[in-house]
């Protein structure tokens, strides 16, 4: 069951990297001084990746918890 913990940790780390990437993407768009419509477009394009990264992170944390309970 130790493998579940490692896999879950890897998924959580990948999800965290995805969240950091989406934050950096939006912050860099804000620093460019885009108009409200352009900034809204950037946020709408990043949103699915942000939600997928959050889901991946949650899935990884669930795997870690299951691995810990079964150990």
Structural account:
This protein has two helices and no strands. By secondary structure, it is an all-alpha fold. Helix 1 packs antiparallel against helix 2. 92% of the residues lie in helices and 0% in strands.
Instruction: For the record, give the distance between the C-alpha atoms at the N and C termini, rounded to a whole number.
Output: 6 Å
Main sheet summary: none
What's the pLDDT, averaged over the residues? 95
State the secondary-structure class. Answer: mainly alpha
Ranges with pLDDT <50 over ≥5 residues? none
* Total beta strands: 0
Strand content: under 5%
Q: What Rg do the Cα atoms give?
A: 16 Å
Give the SSE order as H and E letters: HH
Overall, the morphology is rod-shaped
- With helices defined by DSSP (H or I, 4 residues minimum), what is the helix count? 2
In helices, the fraction of residues equals over 70%
Q: In brief, what are we looking at here?
A:
With 71 residues, the protein is an all-alpha fold. Helices cover 92% and strands 0% of the residues.
Provide the fold topology.
Blueprint: H1 2-31, H2 36-70
Keywords:
mainly alpha; 71 residues; 2 helices
């Amino acid at each position: 069951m130790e493998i579940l913990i490692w896999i879950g940790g890897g998924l959580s780390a990948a999800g965290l990297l995805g969240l950091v990437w989406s934050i950096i993407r939006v912050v860099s768009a804000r620093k460019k001084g885009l108009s409200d419509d352009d900034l809204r477009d950037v946020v709408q394009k990043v949103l699915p990746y942000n939600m997928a990264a959050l889901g991946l992170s949650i899935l990884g944390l669930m795997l870690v918890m299951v691995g810990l309970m079964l150990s």
